Amino acid sequence: MAENTLNKIHEIAASEFLEKGFRGASLREIVKKAGVTTGAFYGYYKSKEELFSALVKPHVQYVSGLFASLIEQFKNLPKEEWAEKMDYFSKQGLIDIYTYAWKNKEAFRLILNASEGTEFENFVHELVEQEVEITHIFYKEMENQGYEPYAFNPMMEHMIISGEFSAILELIIHDIPFEEGLECARKLHDFYEAGWKSILGLK
Hints:
- It is a single chain.
- The protein is mainly alpha-helical.
- It has nine helices and no strands.
- The protein has helices at 2-24, 27-34, 38-41, 48-75, 82-103, 105-113, 123-144, 154-173, 178-200.
- The radius of gyration is 20 Å and the shape is elongated.
- The termini are far apart.
- The mean pLDDT is 90.
């Protein structure tokens, strides 16, 4: 019974958050539509913030951990393989994120469209910062291997990386069928990768 009640609260809350955003959603309305008393709700969660977190935090943590793991795998490669393998790891990271997000579409729509005012509103920005960090490490190693140093404009760098992540996640927002979206994700990565190689003078 308790599990059914909690599932009902989650179902109603997700609908309210998606429709009105975190700020606009009313806890009172969620409780009313779920058919529980306010006292019963507080037996599960202390606040609207805690309820929203329950819906999305496990997914944020999974994707952040997945991306961090791929970065560590790349960093642990022999450095003479970095130039050759960067494309593979970069593409694999985006595909893994897309695949997981597609399988958990409702949670990611909440993160992407309804999280303003919560600790999750900077989710994409935090992924971008992880990518910026490994990209800088990659730049430095390429210089050590004899490639031309490149003084990248930080704003341009941020815009390019942010654009790629945002575009991948647009596939979730617009509910593109999985296989079609996967092909789009691959082609989008190839587009950005060609641009990076051109800018950095890599083959």
